[in-house]
Amino acid sequence: MKNDLIYVYCISNNPPGLTRDMEPNVVKSLKIDMFYVIVKFVSESEFSEENFKKNLSDIQWVELNAREHIMVIRMIMEFGTVIPIKFGTIYNSETSLKKFITDYSGSLIENFDNLVGKEEWSVKIYCDRKVLCEQIDELSEEAAALEKQIMASSPGKAFLLKKKKSELTENEMDRLCKIYGQEYYDEFKILSEATYLNNLLPNDFVEREESMILNASFLISKNKISEFINTVDVLKKKDGNSGFFIESTGPWPPFSFISIKEK
Amino acid sequence: MHDNIIDRSKDITILELLDRVLTKGVIITGDIVISVADIDLVYLGVKLMLCSVETMEQLKMGNQVPKK
User: Fold this and answer.
1) Which of A56, A59, A67 lies closest to B49 in CB terms?
2) Which residues from B are below 8 Å from A88, CB to CB?
3) Residue range(s) defining the domain that contains residue A237
């Protein structure tokens, strides 16, 4: 079947050097106005509205294509600044793709101005509540005071106070998570041009036992990246035994910092 | 090339990936675009996939899988 539909990955402000690794027959750069639109021509059998929606119910197909989407954009990032397009954005013809670029060229230029020389990095912070719970008497004055009371009480009273303490411990852990999360966020925010708070992802989705307490994206000038990475390392060492874990990934295509208003 | 792409980005969880590529970036254009309802279906698929991975791991460990 002929590949008549146009799947768009991203828009670049520089001509990308498409190498053999990037499947030159598949990934193409179309010069439209002053922009380089990175596309591949796809078939209706896979990407017509109906077939595409069917494919979306096949999670392995989605994963393969979503990973390819991001990897192509990452490769294009080597050659210039990019504006990433949402996964699965398809045009029926070059004419309609050109119309979009022309209609939104002002907005695209503004976004490029905002993104040039910057990178998106992600920071996630997790809390191992078991480890935190073991240290609660050292970290919370209230918990320590209650523990003292328990030690000095009769077995009956101690039983009731222990129940009270387990409730208090949960609340205190929530409070400590908020304090740590805010402190870490502030440290990274100082180094950033912009920030974006993402939804916290539930444990079974992130394949970790610990609870996620912060999921943020930071837009950072390239000249501050080493300082940013250094800050991550310092905080990792500082809190290695406290039950808090930092995970940082990047540079991501700047998905979180695109602002294009619909006309 | 697909294999290389998958190998190189295996460290990124599927959800982290989808969280970016499905809901962010330039999201208002295209003759065909994934709708919010489609996105919900994709997430449901991910959840089912992860649940089945968990089930398989339990089987490997020799644990009883609770009947649903």
Assistant:
1) A59
2) 22, 30, 32-34
3) 119-137+175-257
